[in-house]
Structures are given as C-alpha cells and as structure tokens.
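Here is one chain, start to finish.
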Amino acid sequence: DLRAEPAAIRRRALERWLAVGGMRARLSARAVSELLAALEAGTPSRFSAGREGFLVFDGAVLRWEASKRSGEFWSGEMCFPRGSALFFPGGGVLRMAIVEPTEEMKTAVRAGKSDPRREAFLDSDALGSSGLVVRPWRPGDRYRPLGAPGGRKLQDVFTDRRVDPAERRRLPVVCMGDGSIVWCPGLPPADSVKLGDLTKRVAHLTYGGGRATLKTDRP
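Its structure:
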C-alpha cells in the first residue's frame, strides 16, 4: 500500500504510472499534486488530461476516461503489474492473476482447450522481473506465436484469425519490459512464455468487456 510510504515515493510512483500511460505531459505539476492529495484522502475527483479525456478517481480506483471526441480507440502505454486489472476506453478489461499450475491446467492448455480470444496462460517466471506493459497494436509488430517455427507479423496473424481490422486497434498488446510481445487477445501467446514441465507459477490473463485504471489498494 503506497499510503504507508513517504510522500516523495508516493509522488514518484504516481508520476511513473502517468508517464507510462502517456498522461504525465498532459498534467501540470499543480494538477499532479492535487491528484495525489485526492488519492491519499480518498476524495472522488475528475481531472482534465487534454482533449482526449480525463483522469477520474471514484474514491478507490483511478481510471482513464476517454472524451467523446477521442473516439473508441486509445494510445500510449500502461504498466500492467502482476495481479492487477486495466480498463480501456471504448470497452475491454484485461486482468492478470498469478496462480499455481495444476496438471489438469497444463493438460488443458497443451490440448488447446483455452480460448485465446479471452485468456492466456503464461509462465510467470519467464515474463522477467521488469514488469509488463500494455499498449495498442502498431504496424510492423512481430512475435513468435505458440508452436510457430519463427516470428510473424501480428497483422498476418490477425488476418489468419479473422480479427476485424477495426477491432485490432482496440485490442491490448501485452509486452515484457524489453518490448517483446507475449500476448494479444484473439491470438496465441508467445512461444517464449509457454507453460513447461518446470513452470512453478502461471500468469493467467483474461480479457473481456469493460475501461485504463490504477488501483490504490484502499479497503
């Protein structure tokens, strides 16, 4: 809980989250101070972040809310901590839970019984320690899908999977800290983070209907 940390650490954590999400440049230093005060006090607040939308705090969750002029799509990058959830403008919620694998789980995943449109099972330790980042699809993005002999463009995999061109701009692309893509809803996960016999922890990612948030761990 960041509320137990010194004020300087709380501010740095907030500014880092805003910067990764592409929102820091849209807020003045005074606005950041007022936002931090609202988070600490649990005061519901709404802050303008330029023409594209607002930062809205409901007393427990800080989220990005797109303005009507910004359309259904989103931009920028967002931190995706383990065990957290992200809500996107225009619909879609991405969640991550860290669980211990069972033999039944491994068998089902290997048999292709999970639905890549809605979930992915990744080796948590293979994801590295620098944390995950979520961003929109970019033309030229490449990764190696599960079981593929080599890398492929996301655009080609989208086409193979018959993902609607407009929907591609709404889907979150999940990356490791070095930029390596590990999953995008509708596509197979990356081969580099597949479950193995020695997998000790699984990052279970799920995607469904919903909107970019930062949870403050308030009761």
